[in-house]
Design a protein that fits this description.
The structure holds two protein chains of two kinds.
Chain A lengths: L2 H26 L4 H14 L8 H17 L4 H11 L8 H15 L3 H11 L5 H8 L3 H23 L15
Chain B lengths: L2 H9 L11 H13 L13 H13 L1 H7 L4 E2 H12 L20 E2 L3 H24 L2 H17 L16 H15 L4 H10 L1
Antiparallel strand pairs in B: 1-2
C-alpha cells in the first residue's frame, strides 16, 4: 500500500475507533486509558495490513493485551486497589445510585477476569458473541459458556449484596481489575 | 442475561461520563504515531515495483528448484530444542529469568521463532536495565547494557525481499529502527527505548 494511502487508512481507523478504544480502557483502567490507546494505535499503524475488515474487535483485543501486559509484574493492581478504597464518590450522585453502582462494581470484581470481560464486552461495549470471541481470542461457544456463567454469578453476587448481612464493598469508579 | 441486568450494568457504565479526547491531543497522538516509521515484522510492501517483478520472475523461473528448497515450518518440539540452545548463548541481566515457551501442540512456527522469542526478551531486559542504570548513575551498567543491546542487534535476522513470510526475521526498516533506538539511548535519550518497552515487553 502506498504511503499516502496507508496514512489515510490509518487516520480513518484512528478517527473512527479512537474513542471506543479509549472508553474500553477507561472503564477498566482509567489511569492507563490514554497511554494504552496511543500504544494500541501504534500497533495498528505498524500492523496496518493485519487489521481486519471489522477493526474494532481486533483493536480491543490489542488494547486488552497491552493493558494486561502493563499490569503484570509491577504490583500496580495492589496500588490501584488501595487508591480506589480511598476515593470518594462523586458528590452529585444520589445516594441510592451510588449504592447501586457500588454494589454492581463490587459484584463485578468478584467475577473471574475472563467471565467479567465477556459480560462487560456484552453490556458496555455492546459487542456480539463473535466479536467478543475475537477480542478474547477464544471460540464463540466459549463466550456463550462464560456469559452464562457470568450472568448467574453476577446475579448471585448482587443478591448477596442486597441482604443486610452481605455488606457491599464501597468503591467508586477507578477501574476494574 | 435478563434485560434488567443488562440495563443495570449499562446504567453504571463508567464511560458515560468520559469526554472525548480534545482535538489537539488527538491530533498530537496521531502525529506521534505516524512519526513511528518502523513497520511490522512482515516484509514491507512498499518495495519498488521493479524489485517485486524481478522477485516474481525469479520465483517463476526456478519454481521447481525453489519449491524443493523451501524450508518447512518448525514444530513445537523443534522450537523448544532451539530455544534451549539459544538461551545458552544470550545473557540476561542479573535476576531476570527466561520466560517459558507456551506452544500449542499442533501449531507450526516460522523459521527462527525461538531465536526471535529469546532476543525479544533479552532486548526487553537489557533496555530496562539500561534505563535503570542510567537513572542510578551506574556507568558500568550503562556500558554493559549498551554492549548487550549491540550484540542482540547483530543477531537480529534479516527478512530479505522475496523470502516467504515463514522465513521469519525483521525487515530492514525494523532493523534501522532498532539502530536508531540504540543510538538515541547511547546519546542519553531514552524515550525510544521506553516506547519499545511499552509496545513490546
Amino acid at each position: 500500500m502506498p504511503d499516502d494511502l496507508r496514512e489515510a487508512r490509518f487516520t480513518e481507523l484512528f478517527d473512527a475507533h479512537r474513542e471506543a478504544v479509549r472508553a474500553y480502557l477507561w472503564r477498566r483502567d482509567p489511569e492507563l486509558a490514554d497511554d494504552v490507546t496511543a500504544e494500541t494505535f501504534l500497533v495498528c499503524w505498524r500492523r496496518l495490513d493485519a487489521v481486519p475488515r471489522e477493526p474494532l474487535p481486533w483493536l480491543l483485543g490489542v488494547a486488552r493485551n497491552i493493558r494486561l501486559n502493563q499490569r503484570r509484574g509491577d504490583g500496580r493492581r495492589a496500588r490501584l486497589e488501595l487508591r480506589l478504597r480511598a476515593e470518594p464518590a462523586a458528590p452529585d450522585d444520589p445516594a441510592a445510585t451510588v449504592d447501586e453502582r457500588d454494589a454492581v462494581h463490587a459484584a463485578l470484581r468478584n467475577l473471574d477476569e475472563r467471565d467479567r470481560e465477556v459480560l462487560l464486552l456484552t453490556a458496555w461495549e455492546r459487542l456480539s458473541r463473535d466479536e467478543i470471541a475475537e477480542v478474547l481470542g477464544c471460540t464463540r461457544a466459549n463466550v456463550a459458556v462464560r456469559l452464562l456463567r457470568a450472568r448467574r454469578r453476577l446475579a448471585r453476587e448482587l443478591a448477596v449484596a442486597e441482604t443486610p448481612a452481605g455488606g457491599s464493598t464501597l468503591f467508586s469508579h477507578g477501574g476494574l481489575s | 442475561m435478563t434485560p434488567d441486568t443488562i440495563d443495570l450494568l449499562r446504567r453504571h457504565d463508567p464511560a458515560r461520563a468520559l469526554r472525548p479526547l480534545p482535538d489537539a491531543r488527538a491530533s498530537a497522538m496521531r502525529a506521534a504515531i505516524l512519526r513511528d516509521s518502523a513497520p511490522a515484522r512482515r516484509p514491507s510492501r512498499r518495495r519498488p515495483a521493479v524489485a517485486a517483478a524481478v522477485a516474481a520472475a525469479a520465483l517463476l523461473v526456478g519454481a521447481a528448484a525453489v519449491y524443493s528448497s523451501i524450508p518447512g515450518d518448525d514444530d513445537a518440539a523443534t522450537v523448544r530444542r532451539e530455544y534451549a540452545a539459544v538461551k545458552r548463548t544470550i545473557d540476561l541481566p542479573r535476576g531476570v529469568r527466561w520466560r517459558p515457551l507456551d506452544l500449542p501442540r499442533n501449531a507450526v512456527f516460522g523459521q527462527g521463532y525461538a531465536l526471535q522469542f529469546a532476543i525479544g526478551q533479552a532486548q526487553c531486559a537489557w533496555y530496562g536495565h539500561w534505563i535503570a542504570a542510567a537513572r542510578a548513575g551506574d556507568d558500568a551498567g550503562v556500558v554493559r547494557s549498551y554492549a548487550e543491546a549491540l550484540q542482540l542487534r547483530r543477531r537480529l535476522p534479516l527478512h530479505r525481499a522475496g523470502q516467504l513470510e515463514d522465513a521469519g526475521g525483521y525487515t530492514r526498516g525494523t532493523l534501522a529502527a532498532t539502530d536508531r533506538e540504540i543510538a538515541a539511548a547511547q546519546r542519553g535519550e531514552f524515550a525510544p527505548l521506553r516506547q519499545f518497552l511499552r509496545a513490546n515487553c
